[in-house]
Amino acid sequence: MELDKRPASARFTSARNVTITSEFGDMCSVFEAGQTRQIPKALFNAALVAGLVPEDPLEPAPEPVANQTTEERTTTGLLEACKTLIARGVPNDFTMAGVPRAASVKKLVDFNFTNKDVKLAFEQAMHEIEQDGNDST
Question: For residues 87 and 108, what is the distance between their CA atoms, to the nearest angstrom?
Answer without folding.
Answer: 13
